[in-house]
Amino acid sequence: MQVPTPGRIVLYTLDSLDAAVVNRRRTSPASIAARMSSGHWPEGAQAHIGRLAGEGQILPMLIVAVGDTGDVPEWISGRVFLEGTDVLWKPTLDLAAFEPTPGRWHWPARS
Length: 111
Description:
By secondary structure, this protein is α+β, with helices and mostly antiparallel strands. The protein has one domain. It is built from 2 helices and 7 strands. Strand 5 and strand 6 form a beta hairpin. It is elongated, with a radius of gyration of 17 Å. The model has no long low-confidence stretch (mean pLDDT 90).
């Protein structure tokens, strides 16, 4: 039996709210350039650039914390690595029971 511990990589399946949060904060290099040339982009502002996220997308997640009260961890927290310049923090996640499930994590397939 695999045991989740800080530092291990697992997989996380985005749900619709995750996708909406990620996509709301994304922009494009062309949009940044246009806003900079018109004076509407604050100098030093951070931009999040990357592919649009979608519900059901499976991405790697680094386990940061594990909450357990016995032999079996009750939850994990971690950083989901998005296809872009940013990450998504996901606290207190449950394991997907049998297959990838939006809003839950699962172990990668063994090769």
